[in-house]
Design brief:
The complex is a heterodimer of chains A (300) and B (369). Chain A is an all-alpha fold. In chain A, 70% of the residues lie in helices and 1% in strands. Chain A has helices at 22-55, 66-73, 77-108, 114-122, 129-145, 151-159, 167-189, 193-202, 207-215, 220-236, 239-243, 249-255, 265-293; strands at residues 56-57, 62-63. In chain A, a hairpin with a 4-residue loop joins β1 and β2 (62-63). In chain A, α3 (77-108) packs antiparallel against α10 (220-236). Chain B folds into 2 domains: 20-246, P-loop containing nucleotide triphosphate hydrolases (Rossmann fold), CATH 3.40.50; 252-367, RNA polymerase II/Efflux pump adaptor protein, barrel-sandwich hybrid domain (OB fold (Dihydrolipoamide Acetyltransferase, E2P)). In chain B, 24% of the residues lie in helices and 33% in strands. Chain B has helices at 58-66, 108-118, 123-136, 152-165, 182-199, 210-216, 234-239, 244-249, 342-345, and strands spanning 20-29, 32-42, 47-51, 73-78, 81-82, 93-96, 170-174, 202-207, 219-224, 227-232, 254-262, 265-268, 271-274, 285-290, 295-299, 311-319, 323-330, 335-341, 353-358, 364-367. In chain B, the strands form 4 sheets. Chain B has a 6-stranded mixed beta sheet, sandwiched between helices. Chain B has a 5-stranded antiparallel beta sheet with strand order 13-12-11-14-20. The chains are: A mainly alpha (300), B alpha+beta (369). Chain A: InterPro entries: MetI-like, MetI-like_sf. Chain A: Residues 81-284 form the ABC transmembrane type-1 domain. Chain A: Its main location: membrane.
Amino acid sequence: MTTISDTEPAAAVTTPARDKRGLGLRRVRWWRVVVLGVLAVYFLVPLASTFWFTLYTPGTHTFSLAPYGQMFSAQGFGTSVRMTVEIALVTIVILYLLLVPAMIAVQLRLPKLKPVLESLAMVPLVLSPVALVVGVQTVLGWGLDQDPGTPLFQLAADLQNQSFPLILPIVYVVIALPFAYRSLESGLRSVDLKTLVEASRGLGASWPVTIWRAVLPNLRSGLLSGAILTLALVFGEYTISSILQFLPFSVWIVQDGQGATSGQLAPAVSLLSLLLSWAVLFLVSFLGGRRAVGRPDRSS
Amino acid sequence: MSVIASAPAQDAAGTRGVSLELSGLHRSFGATHALAGFDLALAPGELVAMLGPSGCGKTTALRIVAGFDRPDLGAVSLDGVDLTPLPANKRDMGMVFQSYSLFPHLTAGQNVGYGPRLRKVSAAERDRQAEELLELVGMAGMAGRYPHQLSGGQQQRVALARALAVRPKVLLLDEPLSALDAKVRLQLRDEIRRIQQEFGITTLFVTHDQEEALSMADRVAVMRAGKLEQCAAPAELYDRPATAFVAQFVGTMNHLPGQVVGAAKVRVADRELPVDGACPAEGTEVNVLLRPESLDLEPAAEASAAGRPGEGQVMLATFLGATTRLTVRLGDGTEAKADLPSHRAVEFPVGSAVRLAPAPRPVLVVERG
């Protein structure tokens, strides 16, 4: 720093004086423990009980990890998981292709439309999935009422393809809209979008390059949290897919999983999927956090 | 256009000054006319500061030059080539913004390399350039730092290096110092000027700080309500303001009551002074504009302190170093400021009765309304 003549401190580290309030803080800590304890009981007891249920067979008084082994060989497990992951990814892609340009355009050029976009994005929150799916079913029914071979019939049939029902991501985009919108909105609020865009444009970047290199990297945490919420939502969604008679993961757990020995398979699968989503969550937030702080210079 | 003598346009970093011309710019936002026929011409390598009260259109003009906004009417041209239809990313301008504008996800070095990367410069060459430019702006060895690890002043230094990295034809500075504290602002002011002269790059600089404008620029363009009021070298602007607005806006100005007493003559503080520029008809009540340094003081008799024109009482003495600024309240309630050499100012302590003694030089007058 020898050449720097600025004397202002760069990102000074502050250490709050904690000692003075030591006594008050101790009381606060005590309450924290109580609150945390109550929450832990609330969340962990059901999980622990489920785990116990999957291990212990009361009739024979035996413990066994067998249900965890069975699930991978259970019929339809792999297919349903893969289908759900694919649906989730397609949902996220469609969602962001629609939402990111719309939100950037509104922020930069049409700030007056922001309340409109915001209320539109919140509508699905008050929309009951059952009402939504009944509507969707009716519309798909119109298509199937056509003569086979007509484009409308074909479209309705393709949308309901059993191995990859495109109608699900389309409906999920609507349902996930509020969550993705909120995540992106908080991401956008933390950056000075207008200045970033103008700085990038001024340096010679076209619009697509500006979005890709200057805007999206700074929305990363918002994009990530929106994607995680969407993924979780798709994995847990049951009403719509089961009424439309598809067999993604959630429906499979209920239908086929329960048919297995002593009903231990379904809770075992649920627990495992919970653990997996946590792992993804931790991984993503760890990667996101680390890259935001100090990313190795890969461009040079 | 008067070309002001400035540092010769050197070829320090491969850039060469170009001439920039803004002609007949009009821009309205709803009912507000931000620009109403604005003209300005910059000679190659010249630094021109646009100065004016907020809302006078100076930032709008800069954004139109950068291509972030389009004029309703008028044109921007570089070396005679019309730029108006070109989008911002095709204009080869370097801009430094008022707010911190570094890309938060990139290091200082990568920020500087952003423009060259778009121009397909190799990674090794970009790193070398970035190191060189960061050194130029006093940030040697800081290429690996992220913006959030830098102070405000350091961020603006990197922003300047980033703007220079694309070898811009014109450098645009949009109040780059206004978010910084006073000390850093002074240092950076001198460095921007040094670098600008070293590169010989034509520079347009927006500021609302007249001291900044007067100390940095080859010429200062004073704007008012979307139009150019006067564009001249700082000394000329200060000593020979073209209009009353410029006179009042630049520097400190006294407004003393006076009366036109003849062809281009005005009576103020019991003296007759020649009038510079427009002069109303004889007998008109006017305000006479006088700089504090062209007002001298003489002792007056205590008894007459409240009565005769141009006499009053010293209310306040502000020590400024070599000079002291004395604030005098006249009999009619107007206040006048006079700058006296400090050794003479002690002759007029606070409370003493004084008479104003304007220097016998031509003055500007405005009708009292």
